[in-house]
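User: Batch of two.

Assistant: Item 1 of 2:
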Amino acid sequence: MTDDAPRKPPAEPPEQLGPPAWLAEAFRRLARWTSPHTALLITLAVGLIPAILLTLGSAEVYEAVVKSDGVAQLDQPALDTALALRSPGLNAAVTGFTNLAGEIGMPILAGAATLVMALRWRSWTPALLMVSAAGGSLLMTVAGKDLIGRIRPPLADAVPPYEYSASFPSGHSLNSVVLAGMVAYLVILHLQTRRAKILTLASAAGFALAVGLSRVYLGHHWFTDVLVAWTLGLAWLAVVITAHQLLHSRRVAARTARP
């Protein structure tokens, strides 16, 4: 006796977060034109070159701070501009906003976004990438503050509540670049239209930019504290994204090399 009842299709495996289809196809063509190993090296170079350049830029900012020249000459004018713009209402609004990127607000926002993505896409990749990105960001913040020990702007020029830890780099700014950037990267992998991708990237960039400027406005950091946080954050973000892309490129290379 045969069973004529329609059979349910097999359950689909959890979705894996890989590079966009066009990028995977470009890698396949590159691997066939050269070799899988050469294609991997090119992928690595494309990702790490921006990271190296951004790191060198961070070193230049640090040197300017040490010598009190170059871009460091913008620190006092930036603080003076912030002082001229302040008002009680704006101070309260900016303080509330900057707390979103603080030690409590940013982990909650990033953690909630990661949980939603992991459950929706049935993949551990968002959690693994976010933990890696956050760990590196925290390490750079703590190490930078301990090694350099720069003093923050005078308390008389700051908006309370005051902060007393070292100033260089800005942890709020660094974390906002890395975590907002990682959320944007993961979301973009699942978007189809160019407009949606551009809006997602612009939103993350705008958030990180606003957080950094809020630190200068409140007098909690010098401008160069924020500037080096942006460059270091982008450099680390490039490293994490490159590692993720390289992992999937290796899988594509392995499939391409099969007879």
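Item 2 of 2:
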Amino acid sequence: MDQAAARQKVLDVIEADDAVALTQELVRIPSIFPEEAKCAALLAERYRDCGLDVELQEVEPGRPNVLGTLKGDGEGPTLLIEGHTDVVALGDERNWTVDPWGGLITDGRLYGRGASDMKAGLAAAAIAARALRRADIELKGTLRLAGFIDEENQMSGVRHFVKNGGADGLGAAITVEPTFGLGIGTCFCGRSRCDVTFHGQPGHTGIPPQSIVGKNAVHMAWRLIKAVNETCPPHQPHNLYGPSHWQVVSITGGNSNEATIPETCTVRIDARPVPGHDANSIWAYVNELLEQFKREDPSIDARVQLVEGYGTSSWSTDTDSDIVKATQRAYRAVVQTEAPLNQVTQIPPGSGHTLKVSTDVHHIAALGVPCLNIGARGANAHMADEYVLVEQIPVLARILALTTLDYLGFR
């Protein structure tokens, strides 16, 4: 069987309605981390329905990764297509105009928490694998699907997978995040966090702040908060992503129920370094700022502590790599145009403010495995009225199926 005939055979067995229906099934399961178990169970059941060998890999009690394998004959590489089963919280539910767990379809959009980020991608991957089985294609290489827990938090699912050898021998990996929509992304920023804790001197709040008795740690922190809000760490902006950015994500200190001057205040900073910008240099710059503040106010006492387990490095995959070329050919065959390549999301569109995210495959790319991103386009991820474009879900399934066929080879 030649490539064209095999492609057509696979495409003929992909039912668009099935891809959409599976997305709805997944959306209707609330899986706000750490409550991923029911979603993992459904995905495992659907993997079995697709003819995959299934493994539930418990990362933490009641929190399993779900893995599905379609084995080849051993003569080809191994391809991982992955997504995550957890979703973020709803926020203020009064802002939702639809049932966040309803999977409502209207005006070409499928609504619900996780619809875009990223249950549409999980569904499309499963339907792609099922198509290869239904078409009775004998692959040379092995296809693995994964639904990891905890991507929206510490990425403990993929870290457990890597630590236990799951990434050993991988030829390539695809994440079906919505980051680049129905385009190919081969270049991602990193992420890092640190806590800066200011140490003051407690005292009665009846003491004026100008007194030498009592030092308010919350007041000490304002200089750093202001600097983070108004400046960027020194670096060379990236040609796709522009400058790195950082922002304060939490402030903790004092006791609101006591009339006591806050003795400590911790400021947590989230940094998104662009490729080529080392996160360590960001935190070195924070120490420089603190030294400057101390010269201005010798009473300032602060310590910088990296948040362990949160950081990921930026990465990029050569656009001439086999997996990128296979995905481009699959896209061309399905959509009849060239795939958009590294068209970085701007929010709002055209603003120049680039979206800088980390995904599970950051931990796999760090091993030297060629990785890329392609997902179904939607909007409002992490916001109210999240949705995915219905028509893109089966298109993604077709692209993933043909990419797998091309990359792994067949008999």
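The mean pLDDT is 95.
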